[in-house]
Design brief:
The complex is a heterodimer of chains A (311) and B (250).
Chain A: E1 6-17, E2 20-31, E3 35-39, H1 46-53, E4 61-66, E5 69-70, H2 75-79, E6 82-85, H3 97-107, H4 113-125, H5 141-153, E7 159-163, H6 171-186, E8 190-194, H7 198-204, E9 207-212, E10 215-220, H8 222-229, E11 233-239, E12 255-259, E13 262-267, H9 270-282, E14 288-294, H10 298-310
Parallel strand pairs in A: 3-8, 3-9, 6-7, 7-8
Antiparallel strand pairs in A: 1-2, 1-4, 4-5, 9-10, 11-13, 11-14, 12-13
Helix pairs in contact in A: 3-4, 3-5, 8-10
Chain B: H1 3-23, H2 27-45, H3 52-69, H4 72-81, H5 84-89, H6 95-123, H7 132-153, H8 161-177, H9 190-196, H10 200-211, H11 220-249
Helix pairs in contact in B: 1-6, 2-3, 3-6, 3-7, 3-10, 4-8, 6-7, 6-11, 7-10, 7-11, 10-11
Classes of the chains: A alpha/beta (311), B mainly alpha (250).
Chain lengths: 311, 250
């Protein structure tokens, strides 16, 4: 087994399609055993980057190392160590669930009773075992998404590339897949997660790269990104009865935003503001329903970084 | 045998098996690969007062040509459309492996159907066999040759199988008429005889006539050498074109 510290190393990777520079000289690495989030608005170059990292096509320039192997020179060794669940990909609709997984296994040189057993175990994990002999064309979108994951896991990959794995799924399926991702990661699998779901990235990822216009705009842990790029903190409050008229003149509040039945008050000193709010509520007849301080949010980081580039 | 070669062979066989399960049982394949050439052949051959056993080489030639080249054009555009091709390329299988797997599936199909026709011709209609080795070699070589040709068509970077089918029929149909399938090459007009030399079907039909003891136009060695060259060329061109055009599919 190849010893390596970083599961993915990208050095000066670029790709252009005609006049369009889809990916522009990006460099980053993914630590072994981490969940790495890859975020960016539509057209940022995420999908092109992932296609290059998974060997669908080569970059115009740059180097990619997967599990210590140069993807361009040692393609087979590198690809044997990854599993990929692309968002847009499909399983073969005219093959059964089991046939799809076993076909994928054969592409990794795996066959026999052990692999059949593993395929059935995977189907069981994803609650699809009783449908193993059904053709995929009879499956719902959520079931097909689970199938793509089963196929990606058959070779027990060291690095798993997931592109929008919970997109379009119901709550239960999303919960199941997030738990599976966590379990895999705890078992030592490095996860490269491409997603639009910032909340999901915030909850799951050790580090996040935000991509915009073909470049990496920022890369760090979610907390560091929030602290570095967003200074705003706030207090969110809701009242039992009526609307308050004291909010506009409240000290420590820089600005106020009404969000449904709640008010969000932005402040440089949220603790002091919360104390002041409680005092005011006590002396009025509004009644306090809920109050909480909120730190900077990853969504704000994302918007800030992707908007700055537009300007 | 090295592990890499074993892996590659396993991948090629897996792709061929997948193709056969998915594509070779579809009704359009049966129509374009079997019924269409059979009816086309009968439309030209029947009513000419020729014993059926003498029609077997032509029928075999047209069958090899259509069964070998009818499904290959369909697979890659269809898999581009359904996004299964991109999924496949993230595996350790290369573009070359995928193309050769597709060719192998077409080869199996062509060999199976033409083998059945040859068997029926020999044992039901009493067609004589003058040289069994040449017959088997021709079925084998021609199946690979036309499987390669069909896969060349599918290198057109589109996700609409109908576009490729139109192109492939536009090229395949005229070839049939200049290849001595309905009329032996020796009976074609001079321009037809010249054109016939550019068609691989000509050499296949001539080899089959030789193998079934019904005369031949070119020398056996010439037929075999030229058919082998066509086969190697088609296989190489298929792989190279797919490698070149693949990026345009994504």
């Amino acid at each position: 087994m190849n010893n390596y510290k970083n599961s993915v190393i990208v050095k000066n990777m670029s790709k252009a399609f005609g006049q369009l520079q889809a990916v522009d000289n990006i460099s980053f690495h993914v630590h072994k055993g981490e969940i790495f989030g890859f975020l960016g608005p539509n057209g940022a170059g995420k999908t092109t980057s992932v296609r290059m990292l998974t060997g669908v096509f080569p970059p115009d320039t740059g180097q990619i190392y997967i599990a210590g192997y140069n993807l361009l020179d040692q393609t087979l060794a590198a690809k044997m160590r990854i599993g990929v669940a692309p968002e847009s990909a499909n399983a073969y609709l005219d093959l059964t669930a089991l046939e799809n997984i076993l076909f994928m296994a054969e592409m990794y040189g795996l066959s026999g009773k052990k692999i059949r057993k593993r395929a059935e175990e995977l189907l069981n994990i994803f609650n699809l075992l009783d449908r193993k002999n059904d053709k995929i064309k009879q499956f719902s979108k959520g079931m097909r998404q689970k199938m793509i994951l089963c196929m990606a896991l058959i070779n027990e990959p060291e690095i798993l590339f997931l592109d929008e794995p919970t997109s379009g799924l119901d709550v239960q399926s999303r919960y199941l897949i997030r738990n599976i991702i966590k379990d895999l990661n705890q078992g030592g699998t490095t996860i490269f997660l491409t997603t639009h779901n910032i909340n999901e990235a915030n909850k799951l990822c050790d580090r996040i790269a935000i991509m915009n216009k073909g470049e990496i705009a920022a890369i760090d842990s979610p907390e560091n990104l929030k602290n570095t790029f967003v200074s705003s903190q706030s207090v969110e409050v809701s009242f039992k009865f009526g609307s308050p008229n004291f909010l506009d003149n409240l000290s420590y509040a820089n600005s106020i935003e009404k969000r449904g039945d709640k008010y969000r008050l932005y402040s440089d000193e949220p603790g002091q503001l919360a104390m002041k709010l409680i005092e005011q509520v006590k002396s009025s007849n509004l009644g306090l329903n809920s109050i909480r301080t909120i730190g900077p949010e990853l969504e704000e980081v994302f918007i800030k970084l992707t908007e700055e580039k537009k300007e | 045998m090295s592990n890499t070669i074993k892996l590659r062979i396993g991948q090629i066989l897996a792709i061929a098996k997948k193709d056969i399960k998915i594509y070779y049982t579809e009704p359009p394949i049966l129509i374009f690969g079997i019924l269409f050439p059979a009816f086309l052949f009968m439309a030209f051959a029947l009513g000419k007062n020729i014993p059926f056993k003498n029609l077997i080489p032509g029928l075999l030639g047209i069958s090899l040509f259509f069964t070998g080249s009818s499904v290959g054009p369909y697979i890659t555009p269809w898999e581009t459309n359904t996004k299964t091709l991109e999924r496949l390329l993230t595996t350790p299988g290369s573009i070359s492996v995928i193309v050769i797997g597709d060719i192998l599936a077409a080869f199996y199909f062509s060999l199976g159907i033409s083998g059945l026709i040859a068997f029926t011709g020999i044992f039901v209609f009493g067609t004589g066999v003058a040289n069994i080795a040449v017959l088997l070699s021709t079925l084998f070589l021609a199946s690979f040759c036309f499987a390669g040709l069909g896969t060349i068509f599918s290198s057109l970077p589109t996700d609409k199988p109908s576009n490729v089918m139109m192109l492939s029929n536009l090229i395949r149909l005229p070839i049939i008429f200049i290849s001595g399938v309905f009329v032996p090459v020796s009976e074609l007009p001079e321009w037809g005889q010249i054109l016939s030399r550019f068609s691989p079907v000509t050499y296949v039909t001539d080899l089959l006539r030789f193998a079934l003891g019904q005369g031949h136009y070119f020398a056996l060695s010439i037929n075999l050498i030229i058919l082998s060259i066509f086969t190697i060329l088609f296989l190489l061109i298929a792989v190279l074109l797919h490698r070149k055009t693949f990026i345009k599919r994504i």
